Every structure is written in structure tokens, then in C-alpha cells.
Amino acid sequence: MGIKYREVARLLGMSPNTERHYRAILEAEGLLAGAVEDLPALDVLRDAVVRAEGASAPPQQTSSIERWRATIEGLFSDGLKPRAAFDRMRLDHPEFKGSYWAVKRMWRQYKKRQGIQPEDVAIPVETVAGEVAQVDFGYAGKFYDPQTGALRRTWVFVMVLCHSRHMVARLVFDQKIETWLRLHVEAFAEL
């Protein structure tokens, strides 16, 4: 064809060694003989390379937990995330020797095949200023209480104004109605 192999490799976006390997396969099949116009279609060339190399992925691209794929993907379809699926596999199958990272890679592939699900889509709450505030308590762990001198269960009170997304958060040691009302007053005073 008159084009050097390095230039062909550059045009195809592959290394010269890969181009040389593929060219050797195609020449052995007799697919590169003759004029450029007489070359077979790309599908024919691709099929020849796949036949010569085999359709399986190289060992470094095959997951170490491939034999467990059906079981692990069953756990994913039940709603388990990678860490929970990994822990479940270790508990239920003592012979399972896969790593957490292999399970996580499999989860990414699973999610990619599933595509976007309704629960993946966040719907913004559109409100007029001053119309809606969202409020909740959440457990924050144990913190030192200077009044009692001990560690106590601590809660975080959060108020978010929906329009501006301005947030106020406070740590408290109880969820009594008096505390709830006091926190509302403080939050509105700050906003």
C-alpha cells in the first residue's frame, strides 16, 4: 500500500506492535494480498482477527470472581450495594476468595448495563421564597456533654429553606418538644 507500518498504527490509534501482530494474522489469512480496492470489508478483517486470537478476553481482563457473577448480580438485584454483597458472599460462601474491589467493579458493570433507574434521578423541589422549610433530626454519635461531664447520645437538628437551600444545623442531646421548638426559633432568627 505504500504506507509505513508506524503510520498505519498511528492512523488506527494503536501501538506499532499491535498493528504488526494484526497484520501478521491478516497476511497469514491472505486478506491483505492485492490492490487496496480489493481489500475485504472491515467486518471480514475483524472476524479473521477474532478467529485467530479467540473470542475470550485476556486473563488480565477476566474478573477473578467471574464464576460468582450470577450469585453476586442476584444480590445486586435484591438491592445490595458492593460492600453488603461482598460481606454476604463471604458469610454464605466460605470458598469465595474475591476481593471487595472486584465486587465493586462488577457492581459498576451491573449498574452500567441497567442504565438510569428512576431512583437515580433527583427531582428538584421548586418553591417560592419563604414557603417551605425541611426539618429533621439525625443521630450524630456520642459527644461530650459539659453539663454532665460524660459522653451522651447526640442528635443533629437540620433546617433547610427549600428556595435558597440555606441550612442551619445544631447539635443537641435530646429530641424533646421544648428542644424542637427552641431550635425552630433559633433557626428562623439566624435566617
What does this entry look like structurally?
The structure is a single chain. This protein has 191 residues and is an alpha+beta fold. Helix content is 43%, strand content 16%. The chain has seven helices and three strands. The chain has helices at residues 5-12, 16-28, 42-53, 69-77, 82-92, 100-114, 177-190, and strands spanning 133-145, 150-161, 167-172. The chain has a three-stranded antiparallel β-sheet, with helices on one face. Helix 1 (5-12) crosses helix 2 (16-28), helix 4 crosses helix 5 and helix 4 packs across helix 6 (100-114). The chain starts with a helix and ends with a helix. The relative contact order is 0.06. The mean pLDDT is 88.
Keywords summarizing the entry:
alpha+beta, 7 helices, 191 residues, three-stranded antiparallel sheet
Beta-strand segment tally: 3
Alpha-carbon distance between the termini?
A: 75 Å
How much helical structure, as a percent, in the residues?
A: 40-55%
Largest sheet strand order: 1-2-3
Largest sheet: 3 strands, antiparallel
Globally, the shape reads elongated
Radius of gyration: 31 Å
Q: Hey, roughly how much beta strand do the residues contain? A: 15-25%
- What letter string, H or E per element, gives the SSE order? HHHHHHEEEH
Number of helices: 7
Low-confidence stretches: none
How confident is the prediction overall: mean pLDDT?
A: 88
Q: What structural category do the secondary elements indicate? A: alpha+beta
